[in-house]
Amino acid sequence: MKNTEPVTTIDPRFSDPSAVATPWEETRRVLETAELFWVTTVRANGRPHATPLVAVWLEGAIHFSTGADEQKAVNLRENSHVLLSTGCNSWESGLDVVVEGDAVQTTDEATLKRLAEAWTTKWNGQWQFEVRDGCFYHEAGGSALVFSVTPTKILAFAKGNFGYTRHQF
Question: What is the pLDDT of residues 74-107, one digit of tens each?
């Protein structure tokens, strides 16, 4: 997982004349603290599939888990392209963030243990996973695949004083 700083630019075509680019630190803070993300994958027939989930930002990537038979996992077996978005439904304030990249299944035990700890910490113990056989396991008895998305591009949409920022990796 890379930890490089992106090239950050504002797109004046879609921004208020007085808007400035959202700093990477502010965008990253949204990724680190968001409680809910929407993941969009591509079905075999080319149609999009979107669903909410929890995720964690760690070591320059965003990570999420899913059951092996859930639609998003089925889609990712054929097409790794993914969007993860978060933000708020307010028009006058806030920051919406969209992460573009490819979802890669994470099976490395050391990485999974760091991710399990990140979930536990972020959610004050509400999400606890055991790591074994390259998956997360939870107390309800189910297993979950873990995917990591190292972003190729992150878009940040500032509201109020509207700004369209691109963080290119």
Answer: 999 999 999 999 999 899 999 999 999 999 999 9
* Residues 128 and 119: beta-carbon distance below 8 Å: yes
Taken in order of first residue, the domains within the chain and their CATH numbers are: 7-168 (2.30.110.10)
Amino acid identity, position 155 = L
The 3 state secondary structure assigned to the chain is CCCCCCEEEECHHHCCCCCCCCCHHHHHHHHHHCCCEEEEEECCCCCEEEEEECEEEECCEEEEEECCCCHHHHHHHHCCEEEEEECCCCCCCCEEEEEEEEEEECCCHHHHHHHHHHHHHHCCCCCCCEEECCEEECCCCCEEEEEEEEEEEEEEEECCCCEEEEEEC
Handedness of CA 120, 105, 167, 11 (dihedral sign): negative
Q: What is the pTM of this model?
A: 0.94
The span from the CA of 31 to the CA of 56, in Å, is 8
Tens digit of each residue's pLDDT (9 = 90 or more) over 20-30: 999 999 999 99
Token pair 């113990």: residue: 125
Supply the mean pLDDT for the chain.
95
Residue 78 and residue 125: Cα distance in Å, rounded?
33
Residue type, 6: P
